Amino acid sequence: MRDNDTIAAIATAHGRSAIGIIRISGPGVEHILHEHVPSIRPRNATLVDFCDDKNEKIDSVIMIYYKNPHSYTGEDLLEIQTHGSPIILGKILNILCPKYARQARAGEFTERAFLNNKIDLLQAEATIDLINSSSIAAANSAMKSLSGTYSKQVSEIKSDIIKTRSSIEAIINFPEDETTSLDQKHIGKEFEMIVEKIKELLSITEKGIKLNENAEVVIVGEPNSGKSTLCNALLKEEKIIVTEYPGTTRDVIRYDLKVGDNIVSLTDTAGIRQTTDKAEAQGVKNALRSVLDASLILCVMDVNEANHETQA
To answer: For the segment 246-265, what is each residue's pLDDT rounded down to a tens digit?
Structure first.
């Protein structure tokens, strides 16, 4: 079911920045342009003083208008670039909604691009993969899919299947035809080629899935062995409380850490030991559970302890 209403949303990530962007898509874009910048030309950045209903200036913004169907969604689309203050972005969005538009649902701009045949389903999925990519390799893989590389491969496989099916139907319908004997000899090879292409595509897909999963690095060890100190050192920030008292960390604590061109999930855990404290015991269980999904386990030990080698 297609919506013909106008949608609007803040397109930039939450927080303060130099620039913030609001996007509006749908028939209501014409009404916004008529009231705020009637002289704007498509694909031309235009500086505008954006004012509220009392004609009080909110911010100097840059508006860029994309006339349908030459836009991401295939509809009239307006991009408003403001200073990146959440207050300014929120105020402008509150003026736009509900007067001209409603707030978009998550992923609705890409959904409209798909419904208006601007992108296919693989490219729609690649959009979120590109946004969520945790490494350069993952971003490159998503970009290939977004540019249509994998869609082309799927289309080729589909064409091969239709061609082979046609050959089989010809053999069934016209068995007396001499030309079908040649098709019959080659049909097995055609099937083998299709299977190989599908296997290759599945292999690429599996690699892409792995690329989009952050490496999980879990730090484990006994209480007061230096796990949280190591985690803070890797993060280069005092994120986790460190004291001389055993059992300070009682839960699984995760942070994203940039290592070169990759993002890894760094996990600090409760010290592993036998304890009668229910809260700490639950923390130990959570620590052991987190190890099961780890890509790499860092076991921290106190070398001053006599039995540190046997602990490993």
So the answer is: 767 778 888 888 887 778 88
| Residue recorded with tokens 């130990």 | 284
At 191-246, the pLDDT tens digits run: 888 899 898 888 877 777 666 677 888 988 888 888 888 888 888 888 887 887 77
Q: Which fold has domain 215-311?
A: Rossmann fold (3.40.50)
Beta strand ranges found along the chain (DSSP E)? 7-10, 17-25, 46-51, 57-66, 77-84, 102-103, 215-221, 253-259, 262-268, 296-300
Contact (Cβ atoms closer than 8 angstroms) between residue 63 and residue 40 = yes
pLDDT in tens, 269-291: 888 888 888 888 888 888 888 88
> What CATH number does the domain located at 7-118 have?
3.30.1360.120
Q: Cis peptide leading into 98, omega within 30 of 0?
A: yes
Domain boundaries defined on the chain = 7-118, 126-211, 215-311
- Cα–Cα separations (whole angstroms), residue 154 to 150, 158, 171, 267: 6, 6, 26, 39
Q: Is 283 helix (H, G, I), strand (E, B) or coil?
A: helix
Asked if 152 contacts 201 with a C-beta cutoff of 8 angstroms, the reply is: no
Going by C-alpha positions, the residue among 274, 270, 269, 261 that lies closest to residue 294 is 269
Is residue 98's pLDDT more than 70? yes
